[in-house]
């Protein structure tokens, strides 16, 4: 009642039953799986997930079996027997028997079937939910232990597919699998009853049904094969979709939407092809009604040809028995076989995942806390690889010491930390670690929660320590500017934070944990000079004093303060010692320090400008309200009319109607035949039997032809709709505004591309097919009953009215609950995705138990929502069955006390009514399921209404193919904000950049630097005018605009594919151009040394390349594009000085005739620019040559330079002066 009258929300989801709790089932399953692993290793066999499930749930399965036995092996055969005896009371006037006992027998059997069947179905659903929980818990537990090698082989998309789609099959498997053993037993019982009625003729019809069983074995194997192939294609699609969502900014700025669309559409087309084949296979199994009619036809015709007399009792007993057996053998049995085949595919996929390599637990030795000793250590990412990533590593770190690791790109610095953490395996040598470890990763890992929770990360709150951490990590000012301070909720991956803020929160998490050893992977790169000094002095040297610290850094000016330095090159330590030791050994340390004076003066923290207000960080985009309303007509139209062809739709509907007309005609004609034989006598009817046989045969043949055409047309219709809906949703997401991605987590978006699309692909077509066929069959049954006796129109209308009320009452609640289930499903998948991104940090902090408990919480909410939906659906089915029982009682009692009852009419009416016992609940339930599955269509269609970027139709200017010819950029009165309610991040911006000028852009956090880039690329609509070579960028088609500019982003993004596809996704350039670009960035030898050269596959997130190499590949992209305008957005923030120097030299050489905008990170990269634009709070406060800006002692830029050390400030002044003098001479 609550769900019918009010909107159900996530807060209304019940606590799960104790037997469904993940903490009980999940932990028990994990323990049993560990026992299974130990046992199989001992006996040399493969661990078996099915065996574990059987061990845990076999007793519950058998208890369900007992209820099925009562329904299928006792109640259903007996009701056919009592019906036959009841008909005989009126068919043979010579028999003196009272019908009351047999009428009561029919009623009791029908009632018992209702009483016992529904608890069995509900228990089956609960058992399926338990299997879901078991598999989900095992998968997540395994995720937390996956090795790096296994992670490279199993992408997040594949893992999400396991936990979203592969576990769904359990919902349908448990109940239908019971009929795999019930079917044969029921066949023997029913054969005996049929032989009693029609003799040898019963074997012919039964033989036909049994002949289909081998076909179902074949169909089951085919379904398994097609599902496996479809799942593999879905894995690829989801993996790529996840990469698209994570790298959407890069895709938009490179204008790569078409390229990625082609890849996704290719995977989707292959996936749909296998889904279509699977649906063809399944459509054979759900056309059981035609097989039943054909089997009945063979029995009746063979009986006639063998000289058997047709009588009402025999005909309708056999009809009822075939209806019962046909439903078992031709629906539940094949469905069970198909689902069993699919379940083994899913279980094998999950089983294989559970057997992936794991990280070895890091052993902690007893000894002086804080010491690390590594002796002759060698390591490689993959066991089969012949290339070591670390070789002959040998060092000892003393307790309470500060140690630094330096080295060039791909020298093995991060790999060294991974070795200590146990993230990569030790091939040879020994490691001894004494004490607890805390870790700050190079790529900041921020999860969607409050800033405080990101810092605490499971540790107990210590107010004093927390305040000290905030202070020493320079977060006080940032928290004061945020709307809710440290209680501000940040989006997924810190979407609402700048790069520097993310880095400092990531560092704060590491140092808040009270550990003995701190591993800090380049935490100073993403902060400005002032903040960097503050962190090094107050955080690393003071707050962590007395702790062992291993610091990777490119900021060489701090090395004079460390106790020990290790220099790495090509995976080995080439030298180590204190600064004085290195100098005495002849190491060219002076050059490193001199270069660092020039290079490592960081002017400002890198800023990823907030693209949405913090208050909106958790608000989901909803295309339509999802209250208590029913599924709208437009949703159905969006699905069935997706192909925009009324012809296909009408043809499909017509075939459904024609099949039912043929089926109803067959039942009515058989009754007519029996009636004629009874009225005219067996001898006289013999002359007309051939005509009846021909007519009956024609009707059955027509039904077979129409059924085949119906299946083909319907599968084509639904797969076409599924493909179009996916393509439309993908296009909407790909062209959505950046704000959409900031407001919606990747898990919520992937949820629609995984679970919702899987429902539309596989479950919805089956439900619609069965619902449509069954509801038409029910209509046919009602029509036949009312034609036999028009008085039955009254109870029929009564039943239909109540049925409609029940359907509306329960469906409103069911849809409500299912919408909530869809909402709680997104956070579950999002949580898994976030966990995959932060595995190294999670394991370093040893918080697997804490995260598992949080996963259990998400999984319990989802399980409870599923349980609520199942309970509502089962209650609806139960009331429908009770209504049907009443209907059958009315008909039976009518004929019991009717004076003019006629055997044929009784047989036809009650046998048809008994079919309602099976078909009415099943059909209405399937229609309810179909409408429930339409929620997935509704959720997909919601994305039609999301805010999208302007399309080409709004473009009023089409620039020439060579545009921009000069690279002149003008900002005139530009205002920009990220939403209508957000404050302006650019205010009245006016400046002009002349052709081929090199302009640096500096400013503090939130100054608006990255917003200028967003405005140039039109990632956000702006007010005012932006001109490039005199053309207003707001009036140009976005792909054209973005293709004509190049950008090297702060975070180098590589996509899964080949090196070639990452450089040239549209295949516009030849190999010589790509090799030339790689040569310019000094990667030609590296790529040439790979097994496949340009066709070498790039791993997930480009993990088989170092950060510096990824940045160089991004630079090579820009060289290949060869545009007149180049933007560098903190491009050298996370690279060493050699890579930084290489990038700067390449830019000066390759882009000398281009306009270059550099969002500054290190002052040396912009100090010799033609001009520097200084931003502050969205305003351009200074814009001139850096030398001229330095003459203003009260200026912003002057103050930034003076914040560096005196030697560095003087060096920067000299560089600016020489650059200015050179520019004056050239003019």
UniProtKB/TrEMBL annotation:
Species this chain originates from: Photinus pyralis (Common eastern firefly)
ABC transporter domain span: 372-595, 969-1202
Name assigned to this protein: Uncharacterized protein
Ion transport in keyword set: no
Classification via Gene3D superfamilies: ABC transporter type 1, transmembrane domain, P-loop containing nucleotide triphosphate hydrolases
Membrane topology: Multi-pass membrane protein
Protein origin, superkingdom: Eukaryota
Keywords per UniProt: ATP-binding, Membrane, Nucleotide-binding, Transmembrane, Transmembrane helix, Transport
GO cellular component: membrane
An example molecular function term from Gene Ontology annotations: ABC-type transporter activity
